[in-house]
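Continuing the series of single-chain predictions for the mutant panel. This is the parent chain; the variants come on the following pages.
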Amino acid sequence: MQPPLIVRLRGACLVVGMLCASLLGLLSMTAPQARADGAASGGDLTVAQSLGARELTVIVRRAEPGALRVDVVTHVGTAPGTLTLTATPADQGGETSSGTVELGSQPGPYSATLHVDHAGPWELAVSDGQRTARIPFLVSARVVTPWERAAYGGFFAAGVLLLVALGTAVISKRGWPTLIPVGALIAALTVGTTGAVLSGSAPQPRPAGSLLDPTSGNIGNPYPERDLPLTTNYSRPPVNLAVRTAQAGQSTELRLALTDSATGRPVDDLLVTDDAFLHLMVVGPSGRFWHRHPIRVAPGEYRVELGLNESGDYAVAAEIARRGGGVQLLRSSVRVDGGSGSGAADPGTGGGTLTATEAVAGEPTTLTAAFGGSADLQPWLGMLGHLIAVGPLPDGVPTGAAAAGVPVWAHAHAMMPLPAVGAQPPDETVAAYGPNVAFTFTFPQPGRYLVWAQAERGYSVMTVPATVDVRAGAPQ
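Parent structure:
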């Protein structure tokens, strides 16, 4: 007959062993993916920038405390030179980090490595020696949800209670005292297991900074909104846009001021949408077209240089997304007298065409841009293609003046194939699409529209202009 102590130890170990085996099997199936800012860790921030005559795409890779890799993608026509990159914390504390990028004559990515020492809001300054673009970005924190805390706490408590159960079995002269820590162990494992299941299946928190202004204090809080009243309105007032011109060498510089329509204060809470903080679309007096991405030089202040060599009225539209709100399309116009610069618009395809199914107001229309060549188009601004439609145009009015006052100004997309769950979407370094790009758009009113389709090949943005006549639909 075995001594009672050995029997108690065997019983306790058997119970604990069965529970641990079950737990390991469960964790292998439900272990949650590491998260940061309420999204999968390792996400990149991509921001298009029109820095003087250079068209750049700045990619902040995996913004977490530690080494920070920044890629600068250049496009055809970008001059070689040196860019200075500086990462500065937006709050008090932390150290500034600087580096340089030597741009070559060949388009493509060029890299630099900086250092960020804590999570929270930062600003990346990109300077060519004459101009400085200031790009806000977030350094992610490890976001721990309540159910993850329950999982960690439950398993830690289970480990401690395991030792207590074994110790009780050794020193107790009776069998029943051992059941107390074993029962507590089972309860702790239940809590931990429940937390693990919820960690893998419960909805993740909103990304940091999507509703509230991010700070170093709330960047790791999965639910910063819970400290606010339930009646809190997270939407922000509409934005006012003011446009003026200034001479910048051989070019005309457009200076855009964004102000809050309620307070009049500068708007500095823009979110990246379609790989840019601000999409600027300009139509000149004779129909020339520009799609640019002004640099942020100060809160609410954006600038871009264009060669406007035609005198007359230019229609201006700015597409933005503000924190706590949706996408806004701001429209304005500016008059240029005398003109300056080359006046070069977005490059053409040298033979590209745009065809459309019968366009009927109120019914979906398929527009297909044929860019020729092979299936080597690259993603641009996070999309396979972009379509801008302006109209309906009145007869006998110069294009620029007409575009400023038309009721419809639309920006549509040809979407990229969805990436695998947790995978990073393809960027401009991937050339595997096209050569035809199809868009679906519903023209709301009959009339004549100016349309531009855009895509990228060989780090060069191609633009196909067209005119689409939309007929009236059948009476309802």
